[in-house]
Design brief:
Helices cover 24% and strands 21% of the residues. It is of the alpha+beta class.
């Protein structure tokens, strides 16, 4: 047994030091195909005749429903949560409503191991009255972003993904980041883990955006902007696109 110990230790060390698999390349992925048909319908009419304004109002409404949790991300230093809100376990059925919008009615806020942030965004945009030919809901952010990129190649697109140095965030836009070293960019749509928030306010030097499953709640995040109004790089969010909202 003693003779086996050095061998076992070497194997464990080799496993721990082994490089993680590289992120997939978009070229190796099968095409997404058309947006799937769904029978889900919003629970209420959009709050305004403007889909863009409705998106913002719905996001703010849900943020208020969860207790207005707010987290500030400074240009330097750790993020700080200035106000706590309800957590997912405290509103399981409302999160089930979000899941229904992406045809996952079996999930609720009690399924804490399954990220629901993309379901939240999908619920907001569909509830604002945006048709599926302009936004195809999905349980993963990078899937609906990829569809936006494809749709933007044709006339009349409602959402146009831009590089960070091409678009200063405006109210109604989406700001999206790659997560967990997923490596997703507009050049490499590899369907890795990601996260998007809806911009609800822009102030000098900062942008306020609301997203789901941030700190286990619907959270208003405050991100820094540079002197020209563009997103500043921060370690907490690896932003790769600002999605221009062209809705009326």
């Amino acid at each position: 047994m003693r003779r086996l110990l050095p061998t076992v230790l070497l194997l464990l060390l080799a496993t721990a030091c082994a490089p993680k698999p590289a992120p997939k390349s978009a070229a190796s992925l099968a095409p997404l195909g058309p947006c799937p048909v769904s029978s889900w319908k919003p629970e209420a009419p959009p709050p305004t005749a403007s889909p863009r304004i409705s998106m913002v109002l719905l996001a703010v409404q849900e943020w208020a429903r969860y207790g207005r949790q707010t987290t500030v991300y400074p240009a330097n230093g750790p993020a700080r949560t200035e106000q706590l809100g309800l957590k997912e376990r405290e509103a399981p059925e409302r999160i089930n409503d979000y899941w229904k919008s992406v045809d996952r009615p079996n999930l609720t806020g009690l399924d804490t191991e399954v990220p629901w942030s993309a379901a939240f965004i999908s619920w907001v945009i569909q509830s604002a009255g945006v048709p599926r030919d302009q936004f195809c809901p999905d349980a993963r952010h990078t899937i609906y972003v990829e569809r936006m990129v494809l749709r933007a190649r044709r006339p009349g697109a409602a959402f146009v993904p831009r590089h960070l140095d091409e678009r200063a965030p405006r109210v109604g836009d989406l700001i999206c980041a790659s997560r967990d070293n997923g490596g997703t960019t507009l050049e490499n749509l590899n369907r890795g883990p990601g996260h998007c928030d809806i911009v609800v306010e822009v102030r000098p030097g900062e942008v306020h955006a609301i997203g789901g499953n941030v700190g286990d709640s619907v959270t208003r995040s405050v991100f820094p902007l540079d002197a020209s109004g563009f997103l500043s790089p921060i370690s907490a969010r690896q932003f790769f696109t600002v999605i221009e909202n062209r809705l009326p």
